[in-house]
Amino acid sequence: MKHSLFYYFNKVVFKVSIPVFYKRILIRGEENLNLDKPYMVSMNHPNSFMDPIAFATFVKPPMRFLARGDAFKPGLKKILSAVGIIPIFRIKDFGRDGVQKNDETFRLVIEQLRKNNPVIIFAEGISIQERRLRPLKKGCARIALGAIEEFNNTDVFVVPVGVNYQNNPSKFRHDVYIEIGKPVSVGEFRKEFHSNKVGAINHLTLVLQEKMKETVIHIQHPENDELIEQIEELILEETLDEQKYKRNDLKERHEFTKKLCYTVNQLQEEDPDKMISIREKFNLYFNALHVCGIRDKILRNDLKTKSGYTSVAFKFLALITGLPIWLAGVLTNYVPYYISWKTPGKIVKDIEWYASFAVVGGTYVFMLYHLLQFSIVASIIGNWIYTAYYILITVFSGWFCLHYSPFRKKLFGSIRLLRLKKNQQQYNYLVQKRNELIEEIHGLLNKDQHLSARAGA
């Protein structure tokens, strides 16, 4: 099962299109893929096909991965196989008779591992958009130990990988942070597997569960999902500033959120009533912001810079100055943008598939639309130099739109803040509640760090 030219073509074009949909992408720990032995990648699965696409696009080794067998429709089978996808059949989709087809799947995986071709397995066995690791299925451990039995003296490794999206994986212009953990040697379970196969599979699954949990944001209790987002919005950037880190450092942002989740998870277990109180306080503050039409970031920036009408006036002037470029970008890019980013929301039933459809479909919609558009322009103008200018304007104005729209939203937020400041009592109330929340959360984080330090002493 060699990778086709189609696979490598997609790898090139996705390196351009994925950073359009996602603002920043960082992969940490790629050196853990530099193995001279067969290995599998055990990956979490919050965002359907987008998870392996984002990973395989930006790492060097060509990847194969397992995907649900019901995706292999007659018209898609050849395409999916051409990009290295191997079907796997689940009981809930195909019944016990269908699962017998997995014998062929396991044979194909073993064949790839024998050739030192890495294979991605989604160990959770399901794709759900949430910031936690679900209990792993046993399939990954079963295949890995089966490979050990096939290869006799050759070791096999499983590399844990965590794909972490900024809050909402389907959100346009959010961040992606992928952490690649240390490889787990399956050979260490060889003796146990020979004496107790079920026990070895369970043992390896538990080990992978813990190793994968180290690479992902894990919010133990779903009721705290929104709270974690709110705390991130409130103090993440300020904390990075205080610790002299760059705000856009995705590694440090990830580490901060992991520590935050650990603290919240612990407190939820120890004092659930206190967590209820904290969630109520945060909801009260963020609901008040929503009523005023502003975000915490606008209020935070105002407290730091004390921006007034002069600052807003200059920003408004910049907005007007950039308006012609933005209009050029809209005129030349809106049709493929609408088809790519808006249409999937109308046809996709499960939110986990939205980004996959938007990015993969959008990549080809943009390419085909602009090829057609540039061909028409070239035939009308009849001059390749002017056509080249048109292409440059289209590309630049499209890129400009990506930054113009967020700038416009921030400006309008600043205008609403100026209106709010006319009501000094309401403004002071928000500032007071904000300071109280920051003090409480820092107290919890500092207490947790103190206890961790004492435990390690």
Q: How does this structure look, described?
A:
With 457 residues, this protein is an alpha/beta fold. The protein has three domains: 15-213, Glycerol-3-phosphate (1)-acyltransferase (3-Layer(aba) Sandwich); 222-292 and 430-456, no CATH class; 309-422, no CATH class. Helices cover 65% and strands 9% of the residues. The protein has 16 helices and eight strands. Strands 1, 2, 3, 4, 5, 6, 7 and 8 form an eight-stranded mixed sheet that branches. Helix 11 runs antiparallel to helix 16 (424-456). The longest helix is centred in the last third of the chain and has 39 residues, at 309-347. It is flat, with a radius of gyration of 25 Å. The N and C termini lie far apart (52 Å). Residues 450-457 have low confidence and may be disordered.
Q: Secondary-structure map with pairings?
A:
Blueprint (H helix, E strand, L loop, with lengths): L4 H17 L2 E5 L10 E5 L6 H9 L5 E5 L8 H6 L2 E4 L2 H9 L2 H13 L4 E4 L16 H13 L5 E9 L9 E6 L3 E2 L4 H6 L1 H17 L11 H18 L7 H21 L1 H21 L3 H10 L3 H39 L6 H28 L2 H38 L2 H33 L1
Parallel strand pairs: 1-7, 2-5, 2-6, 3-4, 3-5
Antiparallel strand pairs: 6-7, 6-8
Helix pairs in contact: 1-2, 1-14, 5-6, 6-8, 9-10, 10-11, 11-16, 13-14, 13-15, 14-15
Put the structure in a nutshell.
By secondary structure, the chain is α/β, with parallel strands linked by helices.
Properties at a glance:
457 residues; alpha/beta; 3 domains; disordered C terminus; Glycerol-3-phosphate (1)-acyltransferase
